[in-house]
Structure of Cell division ATP-binding protein FtsE:
Amino acid sequence: MIHFDQVSKRYDGGFEALSSVSCSIEKGEMVFLTGHSGAGKSTFLNLLTAIEKPSSGQIRVDGQQLNTLTKRDIAFYRRKVGIVHQDHQLIMDQSVFNNVAQPLLIAGEAPNEVKRRVRAALDKVGLLSKEKFNPVQLSGGEQQRVGIARAVVKKPDLILADEPTGNLDPELSRDIMNLFRQFNEVGTTVLIASHDLGLIARLDYRVLSLNQGKLLASPFQ
Ligand SMILES: Nc1ncnc2c1ncn2[C@@H]1O[C@H](COP(=O)(O)OP(=O)(O)OP(=O)(O)O)[C@@H](O)[C@H]1O
């Protein structure tokens, strides 16, 4: 599903955040992306969401070359991708319902469809009873689950998560990982950037490791 072919990313100023990275992630896989702070994890994800463009090399997602997408293509491509941020980036003065509804409203879905799908997504993350709350009234773990509901409400083929358990204690981190596992079990491809090696080690998924922008050799790459 995801193919990186000799991808490098050099930022303005000359710093090379990714150096000649080649790897593949198959459809339906769940994979962790790890590495020290500054190793290039967020850059890798930002290339996949087409927020950034590679300086050289090719990225293909589901047969589409990301390098050549027009602005309109990018908007369409992003509908298939659900993004979970570490700090969840919720709108704090809007209800949980409205936060989760946001991607559907942007996509121009009809109000009845929005209602149905937001409730289904909130149900999946166990927060249906809190749809009228504002995020400030929720715990950190609950806020992260709202962020996940917002990422999955469009039924994406691919979920990208950047340090989704960064601010959570071990028990809540496990709950969040179980949610990703459930989405993966029904066929969604999941890529999670995390530096929580303890958590990753306890889970039996493939790991891509970055070190100073280079992918470390692994027999399963
Ligand atoms: N927009 C940018 N302009 C210039 N340099 C950048 C930019 N974004 C990231 N970098 C640099 O690229 C390197 C990789 O950053 P990146 O955010 O991808 O790492 P990371 O592995 O996600 O780190 P962390 O775990 O701390 O979030 C860092 O040295 C960072 O300073």
Notes: Residues 11, 13, 15, 17, 35, 37-43, 195 surround adenosine-5'-triphosphate (CB under 6 Å). Residues 130 and 138 are 9 Å apart (CA to CA). The beta strands are 2-10, 16-25, 30-35, 56-61, 64-65, 81-84, 158-162, 189-193, 206-211, 214-215. The first strand starts at residue 2 and ends at 10.
